[in-house]
Design a protein that fits this description.
This protein has helices at 9-22, 71-86, 108-125, 138-141, 155-162, 169-174, 194-202, 218-275, 301-334, and strands at residues 2-8, 28-37, 46-54, 92-100, 132-137, 148-153, 183-186, 188-191. With 335 residues, the chain is of the alpha/beta class. It has two domains: 2-199, 3-Layer(aba) Sandwich (Cytidine Deaminase, domain 2); 237-334, no CATH class. Strand 4, helix 3 and strand 5 (132-137) form a beta-alpha-beta unit. The two termini are 52 Å apart. InterPro entries: eIF3h, eIF3h_C, JAMM_MPN+_peptidase_M67A. Residues 143-319 form the eIF3h C-terminal domain. One of its GO terms (molecular function) is translation initiation factor activity. This is eIF3h C-terminal domain-containing protein.
C-alpha cells in the first residue's frame, strides 16, 4: 500500500510558528485528520492521509531527547480527540509533528510510540494505515524555505519488530533492514483553500531592487549544530559498538573451547572404537551444549537507531554543503 500526506496551509503555518517560537528547543504535538482510500478505478492500494488539525503538546521542563510520549501527553492527545469529536468534527489521530534542528528526529521513543499507536489502531479499529510523522527543521527554514517532510516506519522495520528474535543479525538480514531504511519518506503536499488561492493571485509580490543572495544565512548555523550533534551521536555509537564487540570476543573464545572439546571427544571415541568396535559411546561431538553455553546475541536495536540518526545528520550536511558550494561558485564567477 502506498500513501501520501496532504496538509492544509494552516497546519503548515502552525507547525512553523511552533518551531520559530520555541527555537532552539524542540517541540512535538499530535496530528488529526482523515485517511481517504483512492477510488477503485484509480488505485486500490493508495491512501491519502489528510491532516487538518495540529496541536502542540503542553510545555515540559523535563530533559527529554527529541520526542517524549509520557502519560500526560497521551492524556492531552486523547482529550483533544474527544473534544474534536464532541464538536462533530470527524477526525482521528494520524501521527505527530516534530520541530528539529539539524535533521535530528530519529529516536527510540519516537519509534516505540509509532509502533504502539499502529498496534492500537489495528487492535481497536482494524485500521492498518501507517502512523506518519511531520518533521519541521527550524534552522533550515530561517532562510525563507519551508523545510517540512513526512515520514513513516518502513515495512522492513515493522517486520523486524514483529519477529521473535528482534534485531539480531539473522533478523536484520532476512528483513533487509539497515540504518538507511528505518524510516521511509512519504510524498507531502500542502493544500490551500480556494479562497486562499484567489487571494494569493491578487497579491503582487514586491522585491527590493538591491536584493541579493544572502551568504550568511541560517545554513551555516544549521551545519554547525549538525556537526556538534553528529560528534555527540558518534560517541554514543562507539559505546554501543563496544558492547557488540564484547559479545563477538566472548563468542570467539567459546567457539575455540567448543572446537577443542569436540576434537578431544573425537579422539577419545576413535581410540575407544579401535579397542572395541561395539563399545557404546557416552558422548559425541553433538553433546557440546551440555558443557558449554554460547553468549546470548545482543539486540542491534540501539546500534541501528543510532546509525540511522548519524545517517540523517550526514544527509543534512550533504544537502547544506551543496547549497554553500553553489554560493561559493557564484561568488567566484562574480569576481
Amino acid at each position: 500500500m502506498t500513501i501520501s500526506v496532504e496538509i492544509s496551509a494552516s497546519v503548515a503555518l502552525k507547525i512553523s510558528k511552533v518551531g520559530e517560537d520555541t527555537y532552539p528547543a524542540t517541540e512535538a504535538g499530535p496530528l488529526f485528520g482523515l485517511d481517504v482510500a483512492s477510488e477503485p478505478a484509480e488505485d486500490k492500494r493508495h491512501t491519502s492521509i489528510k491532516v487538518s488539525h495540529a496541536f502542540q503538546f503542553p510545555p515540559s521542563y523535563a530533559n527529554d531527547e527529541i520526542f517524549s510520549f509520557r502519560a500526560s501527553n497521551v492524556k492531552y492527545q486523547n482529550d483533544l480527540l474527544a473534544k474534536l469529536r464532541d464538536t462533530k468534527v470527524g477526525v482521528k489521530h494520524l501521527g505527530w509533528f516534530l520541530t528539529t534542528n539539524g535533521g535530528r528526529f530519529v529516536s527510540q521513543s519516537l519509534i516505540e510510540a509509532i509502533i504502539s499507536q499502529q498496534n492500537q489502531n489495528l487492535t481497536e479499529n482494524r485500521d492498518s494505515t501507517p502512523v506518519v510523522v511531520l518533521v519541521f527543521d527550524t534552522l533550515k527554514s530561517m532562510d525563507g524555505l519551508l523545510s517540512l517532510r513526512a515520514f513513516k516506519l518502513s515495512e522492513s522495520f515493522v517486520r523486524a519488530w514483529k519477529s521473535d528474535e528482534r534485531f539480531v543479525s539473522k533478523n536484520l538480514y532476512e528483513n533487509r533492514l539497515t540504518y538507511r531504511n528505518i524510516f521511509e519518506e512519504v510524498p507531502l503536499k500542502i493544500r490551500n483553500s480556494h479562497l486562499s488561492n484567489l487571494k494569493l493571485q491578487e497579491l503582487s509580490p514586491g522585491f527590493e531592487e538591491d536584493s541579493c543572495l544572502e551568504l550568511t544565512g541560517a545554513t551555516l548555523a544549521s551545519m554547525n549544530l549538525t556537526v556538534d550533534n553528529l560528534a555527540e551521536t558518534v560517541d554514543v555509537f562507539n559505546h554501543t559498538l563496544g558492547n557488540l564487540n564484547y559479545y563477538q570476543r566472548n563468542l570467539s573464545r567459546e567457539l575455540v573451547k567448543i572446537n577443542q572439546w569436540k576434537q578431544q571427544i573425537r579422539q577419545q571415541n576413535e581410540e575407544k572404537l579401535k579397542k572395541d568396535p561395539n563399545a557404546k559411546l557416552t558422548e559425541t561431538e553433538n553433546d557440546w551444549h551440555r558443557h558449554f553455553r554460547l553468549p546470548i546475541q545482543p539486540s542491534k536495536y540501539d546500534n541501528l537507531v543510532t546509525s540511522g540518526l548519524i545517517n540523517s545528520y550526514c544527509n543534512s550536511l550533504e544537502t547544506d554543503g551543496s547549497i554553500e558550494q553553489v554560493k561559493i561558485a557564484g561568488i567566484e564567477e562574480c569576481n
